Amino acid sequence: MARSFGTEFRHADGDAPVEVDYAANAESLGCAAYRARTEEELERALDAAREGSRPALIECRVEPVPAPPSGAWWELGVPEVSGDEEVAAAARAQRAGAAGQRWFG
Known about the structure:
This protein folds into 2 domains: 10-64, no CATH class; 72-105, no CATH class. The two termini are 30 Å apart. Strands 1-2 form a two-stranded parallel sheet. The protein has helices at residues 22-28, 39-51, 85-99; strands spanning 32-35, 56-59. The protein has 105 residues and is mainly α. Strand 1 (32-35), helix 2 (39-51) and strand 2 form a beta-alpha-beta unit.
């Protein structure tokens, strides 16, 4: 499994993750923002976001662990050229996944 490609915020030393206040960030950009820590809070936030008239963000903190295999494929940009073999392998895997993608248009 390849490492993150800029999808995580980390301190300059690369070890500790940076705590990001996504709700405050969304609000600073004019979005409605909600924090959901329980299933009930999530239900209320979804209802409020649907009723709103502007973009909304619902912040749900989750455990940062890989999901179990599902057979799903996520088209995520991967550098196509790299001297790092791990990155090159991820690019090959991404191309193979794209080749098997079904079009539902």
